[in-house]
Amino acid sequence: MKLYTYWRSTAAYRVRIALHLKGLRCEQEPVHLVKDGGEQHKGEYRAINPQGLVPTLVDGGHVITQSLAILEYLEEKHPEPALLPSKPVERARVRSLAQIIACEVHPLNNLRVLQYLSNELDVSDRQKTRWYHHWLEQGLKPLERRLANEGRTGRFCHGDSPTLADVCLVPQLYNARRFDFPLDAYPTLRRIDEACRELNAFRASAPEAQPDAVGTAGSN
Amino acid sequence: MKLYTYWRSTAAYRVRIALHLKGLRCEQEPVHLVKDGGEQHKGEYRAINPQGLVPTLVDGGHVITQSLAILEYLEEKHPEPALLPSKPVERARVRSLAQIIACEVHPLNNLRVLQYLSNELDVSDRQKTRWYHHWLEQGLKPLERRLANEGRTGRFCHGDSPTLADVCLVPQLYNARRFDFPLDAYPTLRRIDEACRELNAFRASAPEAQPDAVGTAGSN
């Protein structure tokens, strides 16, 4: 397998975590999202991924795009260890938690949207940070409320082993810290995030641990 | 089962289509997203869905939020007729097509985002329309390219029976037309959309066919 990735892409980060949790070997092919206007927009990459987004997984000649689709694919092809519970209603809970992040927070705060706000709408840096924090809060508040109140929450988002919900949560909190979003009001999210980051699979998938990571804080 | 829905919510529209395709009975509980500042923000609804978004499905006391999670749940509980193919790589293709819409287009163009652009960023109506069209184009262009070029496309997005990709496509094209987005450059999407809308399940799920629909064109 080959994963087209970028160290700071949280969508790619999700897939890296799942690969590590499942102990799967996968070649990494970095796609630099910022340098020279972004390698993801070049014809060579667009031929593989017409959306010009990372990640893309290539497995035996099959090209799979969209991080949630890749995660479900890995789960179906390599069921152990399971990242989804077995009962439909519990699977729905995990997917719903994951999608609060993947469908409601991340799409509004990713690079191309921040670039549009600056370049097309002339939004100031201060307003851009407010935008970023606003959508994070809109997603993380109900997520905290659910995880704090729902009985199925355990050491991780669902029970005592990591699921696709944790796979989405940890990269999103990485981004929250990167954009100076205060996490004091989110004790359950922080507790779960810490439990995850004690695991090798999460540590090995972190942006800073990637071969294409750039050392300087704040750099792209 | 009970579905909390709003006639013009495209996320609820997806779930209505799946329910109809599978021939499942489901009570509909309308949540008016605009009237009095939005019923979805009231405490009564937030107790069910802390995000304050539609749809929510309640099945035997279980509350399920996030439309893609609901669709997967319905697929697992009521596998026939199948809205996902059987092979992992084909399931991944369908999910990836669905997610181009559900994770990349819709989150940027839904009501709460358009309200933020107006209320917080003072964006003009013209700029708001450009925003709307821009993100539609960013999603629909690669979707058209993939559907036109990939061999697994058939009468529908994947083969000759509807899948979750069609369930997401038709509501998104409804919204595109509603916001005057020209669809001339998308012949494959239009062809599939028409094939879908010949089916009763899609017709019965359309916004205008809902009990809470408001008759006046352009009204909310």
UniProtKB/TrEMBL annotation, chains A, B:
Any idea of its EC number?
A: 5.2.1.2
Where the record annotates domain GST C-terminal, the positions are 87-215
Q: Which GO terms describe its biological process?
A: glutathione metabolic process; L-phenylalanine catabolic process
Note the PROSITE patterns from the entry. Answer: GST_CTER, GST_NTER
GO cellular-component terms in the record?
cytoplasm
Keywords attached to this Swiss-Prot or TrEMBL record, sorted alphabetically, are: Isomerase
Annotated SUPFAM superfamilies? GST C-terminal domain-like, Thioredoxin-like
Name the Gene Ontology molecular function terms of this record.
glutathione transferase activity; maleylacetoacetate isomerase activity
Q: Which residues form the GST N-terminal domain?
A: 1-82
Q: Which domain of life is it from?
A: Bacteria
Record's signal peptide: none
The entry's family comment says: Belongs to the GST superfamily. Zeta family.
Name listed for the protein in its UniProt record: Maleylacetoacetate isomerase
